[in-house]
Amino acid sequence: MFKPTLKNLLLFMVVGSLVGFLLGTGTLFGPVRWITAWVRNGPWSPDVEGYFVRLLMIVLIVTVFVISLLFTAVVLNTRTKHVIWGMPLMLFIVAGVTLYMWLKPGMLNVAEVLESHSGKYRFTVGSYPDRSRMIELKKRGYTAIISLLHPAVVPFEPKLLAEEKKISGELGIELIHMPMLPWISENEEVLDKIRDLAVSGTGRYYIHCYMGKDRVNVVRSVIERAGGSIKPGVSRYGRKHRSLSERDALERGIILVPEKGVYVIPYPTDEEYLTFILADDIRNVVSLLDSEKIAQAEGALLARHGVNYHIFPVSDDHYDPAIVLKAAQLVWRLPRPVVIHGFKNPSPRTEAFIQAFLSNRAPLPPCLFKSYSSTTGGIEVIAPHVALGFRPTSLREYENLLDRGIRKFVYFGNSSSDEAARDREFMKAASLEWYSYKSDDAEWPQKLGQEGPWYIYGPESGMVTNRITELFGSAVPSKILFDPAVLLDVAVEEKVDTAIKIKKPRGFIERMLFFLQEAVPLPGTALLLMTFTFFYTGLSGAYVGWLRMTKGVRTAYTRKIFHFLIFTMASVIQWRGGLSAIMVFGSTTAVCVIYAVFRGKGFPFYEAMARPGDEPHRTFYILVPLITTALGGVISNIFFMRFAHIGYLVGGWGDAVGEPVGSRFGKHRYHVPSLLGVKATRSIEGSISVFLVGFIAALSGFLLMGGIPGQTALLCAAACAAAGMCVEAVSTHGLDNLTIQVVVAGMAVWILGC
Question: What is the C-alpha to C-alpha distance for residues 608 and 544, in angstroms, rounded to an integer?
């Protein structure tokens, strides 16, 4: 790729060092944390985490080598001056700014410490203090600084700790070093010291970690639970710390709030536990999991932090509604805030809890019956504790119903009929409760109002379904259906908001404000992701340019390969990093594409994207899809943020195969509208491929999200793929990147009701 002269090798080594530093930083902030959280939440031993991290390091080294080799080759083999000087200069600037930000924690942090002038508070938490901050702390009467920096967090925390020791010695303020790793394990000794200091210490302390986020919030919670007085740091938006009340979802599913201060969540990852449970004001955690392994680890963790732990194991195989009801009744008596979790949300466990909490009845979660199959029919939950279904005729069917929580049966029809007589004898022999009523009997509402759950069937059962829903509420209530005072020691005096809330913006103005607020990334995050995007998009562009110019691959293929690579990565980045991350990725990718347009004809990246058939408007049909892609992403995130990445996947995968398949196999063609009069056709064969690949893409997206049952994911993926196919088939040439994204994301929201 270039001659191995001393000058060239020195350039390669310098480039490799800078690229390694940038990619290493991004890897530490992203993949390393994701992998460790995933391993720790799975059935793995601690050694497995090390294996995965070492494997990731090998991948990183290989990637750095390849990128550095390509980067050096481009610089040495080009005659374009702005490439020869611009690319190394850009690399130096980005690496320099990254290093500077690492050594200045305040630049990566949005937290501003709110100090106390009155001396009322003995503890204050915040981020790393520089010299001016230490001088200010000294003036305000602080007797000591407690540093949580850990020497193992290299290369920055050891250097910052050394500077801190030097400055504190010069200023005459005591520095107490309590090294704490930025994860929730192996910090018991430090937390015990903090707890003792909160109980018996007499000084005034400023406590900090690197960025003033996770570690100090854990310490803050320990101090508060030990009875210490603490002045917490607040962000520039006025938030004391990150809280569940500010979120609508965690990694494994959504957050539901059936009553103020009651959070029904999925099982948190290690990082989420640290941020939203241990570092918040949570006093009680209720687990619905039946895993002894998780219960032991979770109980030990919460005990160390003074959080009450309540276990109500709900089995997947033999569901017991009475256990869920007991959990719900306990939660009504617990002080707020309180967290209730299954593993994913929504799930049968969490859906059952919502039912029981709002109805005070033994619940039958509808999702427990969605996958039920029988030759005689399905089952529908019509009230929190009542299910309607077919007449069971075999022992196997009765066992299946019992495994799903059914305990009592009501036959609606003629009690003298042969089938009623057989059912009565069978139930009696099986020691099951069985009752028979006519649909117009006056007694059955009182009977069904008693403890359940109930299973109703028979020829007249359909006649009473509306009446049952009117009496006892819908299957999953949206408000409280009983007087909570019956479960409390004292009467409820204040009126509470009883509707289930999934926190998300309403109305166009509110959605726009939410979008603008969430779209702004932290400077450090923006820089790291921008660097990654330049590398990723540059390599992708170089690859498709090589295919086009060296291998002679047709533009119909190279354009869509790039399309596939960018949309797939966009989906991953939004799934893992959220709106602000995708804004950085999209903006940086746009800059790379615009640069290719600037280089124009003959530039490999440009030739890989510009269709010969679009002459004389080849550039126009690069820029228009770029604009419509960005516009589609913005609209999808404003209105359908949770499922925007499904639109990316269907658009990126489905649309990516439509043109190549149509170009190669399309025999049944039709014309579509086009801008600037360029002739454009599509084919039925291409549209079918859009549906098939779009279905796989959407299904992958739904399954990765978690919390969506398999059958629901299949149906929704099919609907999204069909919508994407139809929209792609009729969209104006150059505008389908917009229409597919918006329509597919909107379809997902409409079907799932989110």
Answer: 6
Residue type, 267: Y
Q: How would residue 42 be classed by pLDDT, with cut points 50, 70 and 90?
A: low
Q: Would you say 683 and 657 are in contact if contact means Cβ atoms under 8 Å apart? A: no
Residue 337: cis peptide before it, omega within 30 degrees of 0: yes
How far is Cα 85 from Cα 572, in angstroms, rounded to an integer?
33
- Residue 733 gets which letter from DSSP? B
What does each C-alpha distance from 104 to 18, 35, 100, 150 come to in angstroms?
19, 27, 6, 16
The beta strand positions in 495-552, using DSSP E, are none
Q: What is the pLDDT of residues 680-693, one digit of tens each?
A: 677 888 888 889 98
Helix (H) or strand (E) holding 472: helix 465-472
Distance in angstroms (rounded) separating the CA atoms of residues 253 and 230: 33
CA distances in angstroms from 89 to 81, 96, 369, 584, listed in the order given: 12, 10, 62, 21
- Pairing verdict, β 284-287 and 262-265: unpaired
Among 591, 584, 592, residue whose Cα is nearest residue 543: 592
Q: Report the run of H or E that residue 259 belongs to, with start and end.
A: strand 256-259
With tokens 């190279």, the residue in question is 558
Separation CA 384–CA 366 (nearest Å): 9
- Unique residue bearing structure tokens 């001056």: 81
Q: Whole-model pTM above 0.90?
A: no
Please give the DSSP secondary-structure letter assigned to residue 111: E
Longest dimension (CA), the chain: 101
| Alpha carbons 649 and 665: distance in angstroms, whole number | 23
